[in-house]
Amino acid sequence: MPKSKRDRKVSLTRTPRKGLEAKQALIAELRRCVDTYKHIFIFSVANMRNNKLKDVRNAWKHSRIFFGKNKVMMVALGREPSSEYRENLHQVSKHLRGEVGLLFTNRTKEEVDEWFSSFKEVDFARAGNKATYTVSLDTGPLEQFPHSMEPQLRQLGLPTALKKGVVTLLSDYEVCKEGDILTPEQARVLKLFGYEMAEFKVTIKFLWNSETGDFQKLVGDEEDEEDEKEEEEEEDIDISED
Hints:
Helix content: 25-40%
Order of helices and strands: HEHEHHEHEEEHEEEHEEH
Structural class: alpha+beta
Number of helices: 8
């Protein structure tokens, strides 16, 4: 009887710890960037799209961008003053929450602000996004779609039928109203009809200077202020308990 290929003994002592090695390599690379570049900018991303972020990376090849792996980045920089890699880097770690990233660069604050404030690209909205305007479709033929698409359009909720082989909208149809939180079906219809409502935008929020160790808030919002208040309250509680 032939031996099963699945019946293989694997020595755990010889199993490479690829996940741990990758994290250690990322930590080392982050610290190398801290020592190499003058500034670290913390940025947030609205309507994240990988292809759009790739465009940003290509435009900033002279710098380094890290996005994702927030917890690993916090370990590399240090969560507390006692464990931070350089002075005030724990302030950077405090703001690594959600869809945020780090830009390591030698470019000035003015150069960074100018470039990112003008970089905005529209894309199709996804389920959960808010409709930025009302979209209504008029009764009549939808000649942009092949007849094979008619069942799919009907399944998405559109009142369609085939008339002489042409996909036709039988009555006026409101896809969404301004301010609606889009459902998967609405998002799909908007994409099929070419309506782009999502704006990919990078906002530069904080700056750390390697030469002085100064940490500076550039742009604030209500969420940041609420987070800071919660942190201050937690610190007060810890002190009182001690």
